[in-house]
Amino acid sequence: MFLKNHWYVAAEADEIGAAPLGRIILDEPVVLYRKSDGSAVALEDRCCHRRAPLHKGTVVGDALQCGYHGFTFDAAGTCVAVPGLAGPPPREARVRSYPVCERHRYLFIWMGDPALADPAMVPDLHTHGDPGWAATGERMPVAANYQLIVDNLVDLQHVAFVHRGTIGTDDSDATLSLDRGDGFVRLTRCAVDVPTTPIYRKQGFGERCSQTKIITFTPPGNVTIEITTNEMQIAGREPLSSHILIVNAMTPETARSSHYFWASTRDFDIDNQQMTAFFHRETLRAFNEDKDILEAQQKCIDLDPEAPIVHVPADIGSIQARRMMTQLIEGEKPGHGIAAE
């Protein structure tokens, strides 16, 4: 069961061009392309004639022509031409169109009721497109449910174990504080005087540092992690410091697979391309470690979905995020009016 009446990241903006791009989103086939004016279009990726995928076709002007029998659909999903047909296409010859909104260098899609698609509800992922920030990232396919990825990002207790050689350190004694508000769950994790992580040692930080991570979840699958790292006092020079924000947007593909859009963003030395490449490389290494454990976790869950789960206090963030999502999904069911408290 998915939350429909929210904006999901469908693609990085620069993934979309004149060639159609097929993508499965919330178990629905979607095709994305751009019109001649540059605006993006999202249609059902299934021709109404023989159910062939439209992304195998061609953009003709501002319309999309099926690559199987040439049925052509305008940007609203209406069939406007059928080869060999003397009259107009059948009235029922159409495919679904989806509202889209391009913002923060992402293309967002609304999979629910089009009448409810309010651009003001687009998640704030502005550091991915803000000229005052350097940003680098990509889409990572993950063969796991999107909520497992949210769990992973909201509960950073795993970092010391999954990411020993990349971004991890033993911060098991970090203090945690939780704030749940209207449409968000925020967890603040503070670690004082801990071993510096490998990624910061590579940047010249000393052996020990303090680190604060502010992790914010917003529905349906967005997590930002603001990380401030301060080197402990070093004799003879000013301590180094760093401020970055990791953008994470999880879009369900199916119940057991996800599109994971991530970006490492920073507000310092933003024109340094070598540093941008460094953050991309090191972040990708760490997230591939997450991918490995998450995909193994999904396979294990599939063997017995009803196997019991034991929770500990460190799980409070993921518990609250899942509770919020459950309330929102229940609220979309017919006859329900539940809001996420």
Explain the overall architecture:
The chain is α+β, with helices and mostly antiparallel strands and 341 residues long. The protein folds into two domains: 106 residues, Rieske [2Fe-2S] iron-sulphur domain (Rieske Iron-sulfur Protein); 206 residues, Naphthalene 1,2-dioxygenase Alpha Subunit, Chain A, domain 1, CATH 3.90.380.10. Helix content is 19%, strand content 34%. It is built from five helices and 17 strands. The strands form four sheets. A seven-stranded antiparallel beta sheet has the order 11-17-16-15-14-13-12. Strands 5-6-7-8 form a four-stranded antiparallel beta sheet, with no helix packed on it. Strands 1-10-9 form a three-stranded antiparallel beta sheet, with no helix packed on it. A hairpin with a 3-residue loop joins strand 14 and strand 15. It is globular, with a radius of gyration of 22 Å. The two termini are 20 Å apart. The model has no long low-confidence stretch (mean pLDDT 94).
